[in-house]
Design brief:
By secondary structure, the protein is an alpha+beta fold. It is built from 3 helices and 4 strands; from the N terminus they run H-H-H-E-E-E-E. The chain has a single domain, classed as Nuclear Transport Factor 2, Chain: A, CATH 3.10.450.50. Strands 1-2-3-4 form a 4-stranded antiparallel β-sheet, covered by helices on one side.
Length: 130
Amino acid sequence: MALCPCGSGAAYSQCCRPFITGRALAPTAEALMRSRYSAYVRRDESYLLRTWHPATKPAALDVDGGHWLGLEILATTKGQAADASGTVTFAAHYVGDAGDSGTMREHSRFERLGDAWLYVDGDVADEGIA
C-alpha cells in the first residue's frame, strides 16, 4: 500500500487518486489542496490546470523541476461542502534541481463552481535554504 504524497496517512488509492483520475470531486477546499499537492509530486499538469479557476488559470505550467518532500496543512477557513469559498494555508517542503532545499508557504484561496472546488490564487512565500 503506497501512502498518499499529501501526508494524510491514507493510501494514495483511497485518498487523492480518485480526484486526480476524475472518478470523484474533492469534497472540501483542503481535500482539493492535498490532491493538487499530490499532482505536483506526480507531475500531473493536466489535473492542476483542470482544478484551477478559469479566471486565474495559466495557459501552461512547468511541473518538471525539483522534488517535493512533504506537505503540512497549517490552517483552513471555510471550504466545507456547504461553503462557496475557503482558504488553506500550507507549507510544502522541497529539494530543488541544484540540491537546494526549502519550504514554500502559501495562503491559497478556493471557490466552488457547481459541485467542484477550484484553486483561485494564493499568497506565496518561498523560504529557500542554499
